[in-house]
Amino acid sequence: MESVTLRDRFRGGIVGTAVGDALGAPFEGRQEVDPRRIDSWQRSDKDLRWTDDTAMTVGVAESLIASGGFDGEDMVSRFMAHHDAEPWRGYGAGPPRVFAAIRQGVDWREAASTLFGGTGSFGNGAAMRSAPLGLFACHDLELVASMAWEAAGITHAHALGRAGAAMQAYSTGWLATTPSEPSGPVRTLLVDDLRSVIVDPTFRQRLDALDDLGTESPRDEVVATLGNGIEAVEAVPAAVHAATAHPADFAAAVRSAVMLGGDTDTIAAMAGALAGALLGYSAIPQPWLSRLEGHESLVTLADELLTAAFIARPPGGIDAG
Ligand code: R7I
Ligand code: MG
Ligand code: MG
To answer: Are 99 and 79 contacting, i.e. CB atoms less than 8 angstroms apart?
Structure first.
């Protein structure tokens, strides 16, 4: 009984990112989480304003639409335009330094590898913006992983920053092409397939930990096992946990992501993308949609991304449902 269309899933992945980002934003960086405060914020009627996670996701989607595929020079110019227009969105330290270097004449292919003493960033900033890549190329999940690895390198040259982006993008594309009522346990099926594209040994350990962790595990055990920090190797597995612990309930997935504490906007943005790709935009609670900053333009962007995906991949390659 498959009823969630690909259009609904594209919208769910993009709008789900923004909803998760905005619901998590007030709690970013806090280790002590108060469920009453989280619930009262989720039930309030205040505007849901998103952060850099969504601004960069919009940049990735716009670039894929305009270029018909991955074009690093175009993508970084869109990141820079968004950052110039709204530098107050809460960006990590690294990306603005990459943008400044490019502006001073450093090649965009080289700029990110100069950060953090020459290792490049292992932050979650490339992973958090990766949903559009997973949606755009969902007909070919190996392509998703390799495009996400390349696109991450614009700002995150470190292997862990790149692997996080590959894992998040692949998971988004995988969920967008999985029946919304899957025949087996989503967590196990997804992690099994991730093992075919994630080769980094540190990430592979986290995949094993994620697989061993029960979907019902208490919050403290999840945080002790996976972490909840700004590093991609913590935030991405945490987001996959939250989404796959609640494979039939968008609101519960996002709530449990925020409840993990730590990098709450980013973990919830990624969990929102994953839950939205599986369950569709129609699974996002209406009160959150009506509070969401830029709601209509995000829906339009998702629809344009779907059209671009069809143009890049002739009919028959993906099924619009
Ligand atoms: O990854 P990035 O874009 O940050 C994203 C986060 C999300 O939580 C957003 O919501 C926003 O708040 O920022 O930014 P980076 O600066 O590349 O990485 C984030 C942080 O991780 C850095 O500022 C460092 O504190 C840390 N970090 C590193 N520390 C030491 N050595 C990242 N890479 C390294 C490293 O190689
Ligand atoms: Mg943010
Ligand atoms: Mg964050």
So the answer is: yes
Say how many Å lie between the CA of residue 230 and the centre of ligand 3.
7
Q: How many Å from the N-terminal Cα to the C-terminal Cα in the chain?
A: 12
pLDDT for position 249: 97
* Dist CA 34 CA 253 (whole Å): 17
CA distances from 316 to 171, 196, 309, 311 (A): 22, 25, 12, 12
The confidence score (pLDDT) of residue 316 equals 58
Nearest CA to ligand 1 atom 13: 92
Q: Characterize 182-205 residue by residue with b for buried, 16 or more Cβ atoms within 10 angstroms of its Cβ, and e for exposed.
A: eeeebbeebbeebeebbebeebee
Residue 284 CA to ligand 3 centre (angstroms): 21
Q: Whose atoms come closest to the Cα of 50: which ligand? A: 2
Q: How far is the CA of 226 from the centre of ligand 3 (A)?
A: 16
Q: What average pLDDT is seen over the chain?
A: 96
Residue-wise pLDDT for 23-35, tens only, equals 999 999 999 889 9
Summarize pLDDT for 216-225 with one digit per residue, the tens: 999 999 999 9
The single residue listed with the structure tokens 């999985």 is 178
Of 30, 51, 121, best ligand 1 pocket probe by most atoms within 8 Å of the beta carbon: 121
H or E element at residue 63: helix 52-67
| CA–CA separation, 252 and 7 (whole Å) | 22
pLDDT of residue 1: 40
